[in-house]
Design goal:
This is Uridylate kinase. One of its GO terms (biological process) is UDP biosynthetic process. Homohexamer. Pathway: Pyrimidine metabolism; CTP biosynthesis via de novo pathway; UDP from UMP (UMPK route): step 1/1. α6 packs parallel to α8. This protein is of the alpha/beta class. The two termini are 19 Å apart. The chain is built from 9 helices and 11 strands. It has one domain (8-237): Acetylglutamate kinase-like (Carbamate kinase), CATH 3.40.1160.10. Strands 4-3-5-2-1-6-10-11-9 form a 9-stranded mixed beta sheet, with helices on both faces. A two-stranded antiparallel sheet has the order 7-8. The structure holds uridine-5'-diphosphate. Uridine-5'-diphosphate is lined by residues 15-17, 52-54, 58-60, 73, 76-77, 79-80, 133-134, 136-137, 139-142, 144.
Length: 238
Amino acid sequence: APGSSIRRRVLLKLSGEVFGGGAVGVDPATVRGIAEQIAAVRDQVEVAVVVGGGNFFRGAELSAAGMDRARADYIGMLGTVMNALALQDFLEQAGQPTRVQTAIGMAQVAEPYIPLRAIRHMEKGRVVIFGAGAGMPYFSTDTVCAQRALEVGAEMVLMGKSGVDGVYTADPRKDSTAQKLDHLTYTEALHRDIRVMDQTAMTMCNDNGLNMRVFGMEAAGNVTQALLGETIGTLVTP
Ligand code: UDP
């Protein structure tokens, strides 16, 4: 793996939903709680974070409301940068050094995405937050998370979900017979139309041998447990 070091290296995906606490904007108390859980394991694991932006804008929704799709997607990407800066702030407050790297240049607030530099930051104990997605319309932050995990040599993707604590046989919010799965494969997830992440992202993980753990953000200490490699939620493998 590029820049292999002694500690485990993982990629944490936080969707926009997580930041907003179910609403539009950033919920400071929620983000502070997540930041403190990440900072708590700083000596044990190297962490990169990909942030979503759905709490601000989703390109597909703006496009359905009449905007040009590509421009709407750029608005969506800018939303992820707001989340990245909010997470950075609470991590720094918790004593955790950070760097934000964005796929769209914005020199005053973030470094550009430079993979080898991101690896070096993690080796030095900094948490690297990736913002602005891939910098390309028609992509999602799920796909970016698979790509960044592969490029910086993360051993697995940790998908923090809001409102659900793993992968179920059906949507547990709609179907009371839904059962939680401890393990499934990307192929099963694709065939059963289980939307733990978008299909492009699952295909990329499957093709490149990248494991993923899907877990709930709500229960106390869950982020820390996931970062430490404990077997919570659902493991998805090729
Ligand atoms: N987006 C994009 N290219 C990317 C990543 C994101 O165009 O590489 C846009 C897209 O419009 C998306 C929005 O940014 O709807 C927010 O990202 P996403 O929906 O993945 O966030 P999440 O669902 O994780 O909150």
